[in-house]
Amino acid sequence: MAEKGTISIHTENIFPVIKKFLYSDNEIFLRELVSNAVDASQKIKRLSSLGQFGGEVGDLTVDVSFDEAAKTITISDNGLGMTADEIKKYINQIAFSGATEFMEKFKEANDANEIIGRFGLGFYSAFMVADRVEIQSLSYQEGAEPAHWTCDGSTSYEISEGTRTQRGTDVILHVNADSEEFLNKSRLEEILNKYAKFLPVPVRFGTKSTSEPDGEDEEGKPKYKNVEVDNFINNTNPAWTKSPSELTDEDYLAFYRELYPYAMDEPLFWIHLNVDYPFNLTGILYFPKIKNDLEIQRNKIKLYSRQVFITDEVKDIVPEFLMLLHGVIDSPDIPLNVSRSFLQADGNVKKINTYITKKVADKLQEIYKSDRKGFEEKWNDIGLFIKYGMLSDDKFAEKANEFCLLKNTDGEHYTIKEYYEKVKDIQVDKDGNVVYLYTHDAAQQDGFISGAKAKGYDVLVLDGPLDTHITSYLEQKGGEKVQLKRVDADVAEKLIQKDEQIEAVLTEDESKKATELFEKAITRTDMKVEVAALTAGDLPVSVTIDEFMRRMKDMAKTGGGGMGFYGELPDQYKVTVNGNHPLVKRILESSDEDGARLAKQAFDLALLSRGLLTGAELTSFVKRSVEMI
């Protein structure tokens, strides 16, 4: 006998509210309903294992189907099922504290997950896309009668005798005119692939075409025929749900390809997460080849709750630098309907964040210690990630100091501590500062590198997008009284100031004349001439840029806080004329015309070595060089 009633929600306006506030995320209706079906299927299996259900569990596949002509979407399961009384209990009684409070609290809300999660509206998300919803259900309980529930989007419902003959539940959505996009095979399959790809119970969505062997042709070659097979959406037992001891390297790589079928490169290595106290967490994080590109590839780590996809916006669960990784995190301690405000405030999320950071640091340290040579070979691919972590997370930096590598121009790798020990006795200035020399472009700065190495100095290669900040990090934490200077910050003789002075060949008047000659040869306002007593083997003219100013400008370019002012300042170069070089003596002894010509040529050579000679100036230099040969 049919029964009619009113849903206990204390407001006549709940369904318009649901449709209005949840519309932007309306595709989650399918996630909610399929998740409910999976839960019902798992529960019957659990009851059977506990001896509380003596019947055959049978096939627990969840079926999703649609009928474009009838404008319906149906989600069917063979799970627990419900009696009429249970439908009234679980579906009809939505315990809101009151319509006024609800409307006031969420009048500005636009986060469907937050509303659904707060009020347990998973089933009612169906009304985001449907103007009528039916339930056909038959409980597992012995002697249960099938029940049929229907609701047209108002607070009225009707329960009558159902038609289902097998245990389980059908939820039938009569799709409204605004949501007919979901009466499309591709659209539904897209949503299922997003949310249901790894659900623990098989989810079937119609059939798909595939080819299978069909004997041989006359030439003995294999033949194939097209057949229709069940279209199962999900892998019910993904790699992260298994014990690491069950998995081979190929299993991990196969799962990576399953997650990212269009990835060009295979991951370098991975971390299998598995913890059950003080929170539950499983997952696999992969280290991709990052190289020197700081484009943070967001949406690469996927968050699941009991194998149900939640989101790929995970920045509140993992630290910013770990978002360079790929993979899966699954935690039942994070509710399915999770909002960003929840993530930011939840204590478990903060613990998860700390745990993952520690596991990543431990894994990197383990690889470094067990296979340093292999670690060095991977450094170009993982160095950016490690430096990013050190700059953004103090806890990670504490451990990373032991395995962060510095590479020099000879291709040798050193830990931060090892490098300090290497140069602390040689590259020390008159004030006791240990000076690390580095290049950001070894090819362009080869002349400066050669000059430094000729004096027995070592030169680091710091050419990554974060290395402007790493120089400051090393000065603060790289060792006692450490300073860093780019190798083109000054002439080699002055990069590391010593007490000893080189005797000047030129008299004071000759130095003054040389300064005037070069000032006339240089028409640029951003360059200042200085005559210095260097060794005869040093270059006759060098163009350098002050380390402090250049570093401040670099920091401004990379978004360094409070450095914007420096970014607006023009570059200022120093032109150092080596008064002890034979060419300078020759220039001074030449006629005014020849001296000016030689000075201009020597200056242009210095510009050319810095990549600063371009356009008409370069053309004039080439023409002049030909004339002088």
UniProtKB/TrEMBL annotation:
Superkingdom: Bacteria
UniProt KW Glycoprotein keyword: no
Pfam families given in the database record: HATPase_c_3, HSP90
All copies of domain Histidine kinase/HSP90-like ATPase, residue ranges: 25-179
Record keywords, A-Z: ATP-binding, Chaperone, Nucleotide-binding
Record-linked CDD domains: HATPase_Hsp90-like
Family classification: Belongs to the heat shock protein 90 family.
Entry protein name: Molecular chaperone HtpG
Source organism of the structure: Sphingobacterium populi
